Structure formats: C-alpha cells, structure tokens
Amino acid sequence: MAKKPQTSSRIADNKKAAYNYFFEERYEAGMVLEGWEVKALREGKVQLTDGYVVVRDGELYLIGCQINPLKTASTHVNPDSVRTKKLLLHKEEIKRLIIKVEQKGYTLVPLNLHWKDGRVKCEIALAKGKAEHDKRDTIKDREGKREVERAMKNRSR
C-alpha cells in the first residue's frame, strides 16, 4: 500500500517573491501534472524561483517552474523540465483575477507548492511590484530583526 504524504507539507517555496512584491490576495490552485512530475516533486526536485503565472484564453498557466526528472524515469517518457503547467481554479476566481491583472502594476506570482490531501497545490498571489526603496526597507527590517534576536540570545546566556 502506498504511503500518503502529510496533509499539508511544503514542497517548494518562492523566497524571492516576498522580496520583489507586495501581496494583495492569495489563492490555492490545483495543478495538472504528469506522473513523472509528481514522483519528482515527492523527491523535492523542483525550483519555483523563476516561475510566474500567465493568463491565456481565460485559463491560468504556470511558466518557468522547473521540475527536474528523476534519473529512474521511464524510457518511454520524454520529460520536459520547464513544461507549462495548467492551474485549476473556479471560473469566478479566474475572472476576478483576469480583471485585476489587467490593471496597471498587478501580476500573478507563485508562492509555494504543497501537498493537500494527496494532491499538489500551488499557492499563487495577486501581487504588486516593489520599488527599489521598498526593497531597501525590506532589507533594513530583516537586518534589524536579526540584530534584536542576536541581542536577546546573548542576553539570555
């Protein structure tokens, strides 16, 4: 009997997204995957950093998400590691996202891939790009938090 993955375990995160964008809304979308891709995801062979979501013909697609095939992949399968993957959402959600993306400055960004009830889900966000000074503020905040944590750690010793 096959072992089911945990109910909600992370596969991959897009850490660059929080640095480059402000998130307005988050959505959880299903993914259309091939068998070899699911096996590779179980092994953690995925890179989401360069991924982005586009709208084509009223449907959402994930582009740039790289899933590297396992060395033990079947010989009759021709794996394409950067294949475009279709995202599954309700029609109303897709329509709402299309309207928002057509507004100036909004884009759809993949945040993470995770397991949910034995299926792979992609969390996407409606995001607005950060300006350079906002990115500097993010770095300052992060460094400030590190300094506070170091001070607290040294004080507790």
From TrEMBL:
Required for rescue of stalled ribosomes mediated by trans-translation. Binds to transfer-messenger RNA (tmRNA), required for stable association of tmRNA with ribosomes. tmRNA and SmpB together mimic tRNA shape, replacing the anticodon stem-loop with SmpB. tmRNA is encoded by the ssrA gene; the 2 termini fold to resemble tRNA(Ala) and it encodes a 'tag peptide', a short internal open reading frame. During trans-translation Ala-aminoacylated tmRNA acts like a tRNA, entering the A-site of stalled ribosomes, displacing the stalled mRNA. Transmembrane segments: none annotated. InterPro entries: SmpB, SsrA-bd_prot, SsrA-bd_prot_CS. NCBIfam families: PRK05422.1, smpB. Keywords: Cytoplasm, RNA-binding. It comes from the Bacteria. GO terms for biological process: trans-translation; trans-translation-dependent protein tagging. It comes from Simplicispira metamorpha. Belongs to the SmpB family. CDD domains: SmpB. Its main location: cytoplasm. One of its GO terms (cellular component) is cytosol. This is SsrA-binding protein. It is found in: Cytoplasm. The gene is smpB. Residues 133-157 are annotated as: Disordered. GO terms for molecular function: RNA binding.
